[in-house]
Each structure stands twice: as structure tokens, then as C-alpha cells.
Amino acid sequence: MEIKRAQHAGFCFGVKRAVDQVYEQLEMGKTIYTYGPVIHNEEVVKDLERKGVRVIPDKEELRRLDCGTIVIRSHGVAREIYEIIREQGLECIDATCPYVRKIHKIVEKERLADKHIVIIGDASHPEVEGIVGWCDGDVSVIETPEDAVKFTGPENQSICVVAQTTYNYNKFQYIVEIFQKKGYNSSVVVNTICNATEERQAEARAIAAEADVMIVIGGKHSSNTRKLYEICSQECANTYYIQTLDDLHLELPKAVRQVGITAGASTPNKLIEEVQNYVRINF
């Protein structure tokens, strides 16, 4: 049996940068807080908590802090959060993924140009919540093609379309086509899905198309991992979504010739290797 592990799997640039920054601050002996989980991987967050890092869940609790170092999570935050940190006199370490920060600058600029901002993504995801917080009103979040069909923008106002960095690339293109058919051809459309996401999704799709069994590893709250699972499930009926090795309960028939493995951007390489070695030894 062959095991095919995706080359584009595990920590992406933005996630590695954020996690490294937290550990670097810990080594300096500082009291560290992160605004929200620094990444969407519970195992990593638990390890940081064991080392003394505390997660600040909302702005109300942030306002109660009067000392310490706040690390801004890789997903980014609204402008208001930076203002509260300054007001409280806290040290700020900004671990926002540069690709996410780029979206903040785009929507801020286009709102000043009086465009209605359309974000394609999950409205409840912290990255999208952060982007909304740089728009100063006049913003819509579109999650599905069905939402795009129903969308009616403000009269006599152009729109600016951006995407959550981890959104499904093919679905983004389809939604943009819907907007074009609705007459928004003169609007600004910026593909802000990061290159690593596009590569990860394309490779996962290709591996799943050939695999008899596909394993997708990532945190249960990870948006990019859920999208990998969605893509792989379309290509391979036997697709498993696991968070840790303990979640893997495989019963592989002898006819299985190839098992594919991919992982979300917040998945440590150590975990991917554990799963790969388990499958190799036991099957």
C-alpha cells in the first residue's frame, strides 16, 4: 500500500510566524496574552497555555487588563482592538498574517473611495470579523453562491470584492462570475486567497482523486481544514477528518492501494508525521 503525503501540508508561513512570535516572547519571561487563540489548532493552544499563555476571548476582558503583552492572532483583528490595547497601555506584538493585513489595507482604502465592501467568506470566522472591523460600515459578507445570487448592492455605488484568505478558490471564482452576470463588471475584485491556500487545495484535490482513502488533519475550528475536507470528500468517498491521532479509527480493506494525507495550515508537522507513521506501521 502506498501512502501519499501532500507536500503543501502543515504550518503555512503566517501560522508559523505567529506561533514562533509567541514562543519568542515567552523566552523573554514576559506575561503573554493572545487575543483569541493565536491559531486554530487546539493542541498548539493547549501547549501555550501550559507555558502560561492566556487567551483573551473578547474586548470586554481586554479592557480589564492593565499590564502584560498582547499578541494579535494570525487571523488579525478589527482596528478597534488596536485602539483598546493602546488605551490600556499594553505592549502589542502584531502576529497578523501579512496576507490578512493586506486585505485590511485594501478594504480601508476602498471604503474611503466610497465603495461597498463585499467579503467572500465565513461571517463568524475571526479573520472575516477582523476584516469587517476595517470597513467602517457599508459591508456585506457572502458565504455561498446562493448568497451571491440574492445579493443586491446599494444603488449607484460600486463594490469591492475580497475573499477570506482560506476560502475555496474554485467557489470564489464562481461567485465572482455571479457578480459579473449581475452587472458588477466595473467593480474592484481582488483575489485575496493566499497562494499557499490555492496550492494546498489543488494538491489535496489531486491526491484525493487518486486515493482509495484520504485523511485530512486539522483543528475542528480550522476553516481552511474544513475546506480541504470538503474538497477531498468530493474526490474520495472514504475521506476522514481528524484532529489528532486518537481520532483516527481506520479499518482498511485489503483492496486499498493508496492512502492520501493532507493537513490544514495550523497543523504541526509532528502530528502529520505521527499519522503517517501509524498508517505505515499498522496497515
- Low-pLDDT sequence parts: none
Instruction: Predict the CATH topology of the largest domain.
Output: Cobalt-precorrin-4 Transmethylase, domain 1
Radius of gyration in whole Å, from Cα?
20 Å
Reading off the top of the CATH hierarchy, the class of the largest domain is best stated as Alpha Beta
Strand order of the largest sheet: 1-12-10-11
| Mean of pLDDT | 94
Order of helices and strands: EHEHEHEHEHEHEHEHEHEHEEH
Q: How far apart are the first and last residues' alpha carbons, in Å? A: 8 Å
Count the DSSP helices: 11
| Structural class based on helices, strands and sheet pairing | alpha/beta
Please give the largest β-sheet. 4 strands, parallel
The proportion of residues in beta strands is: 15-25%
Written description of the protein model:
It is flat, with a radius of gyration of 20 Å. The chain has three domains: 2-10 and 196-282, 4-hydroxy-3-methylbut-2-enyl diphosphate reductase, catalytic domain (Cobalt-precorrin-4 Transmethylase, domain 1, 3-Layer(aba) Sandwich), CATH 3.40.1010.20; 13-96, Rossmann fold (3-Layer(aba) Sandwich); 99-189, 4-hydroxy-3-methylbut-2-enyl diphosphate reductase, catalytic domain (Cobalt-precorrin-4 Transmethylase, domain 1), CATH 3.40.1010.20. With 283 residues, the chain is of the alpha/beta class. It has a four-stranded parallel β-sheet, with helices on both faces. It contains eleven helices and twelve strands.
List the defining traits of the structure above.
11 helices, Cobalt-precorrin-4 Transmethylase, domain 1, 12 strands, 18% strand, 3 domains, 4-stranded parallel β-sheet, 43% helix
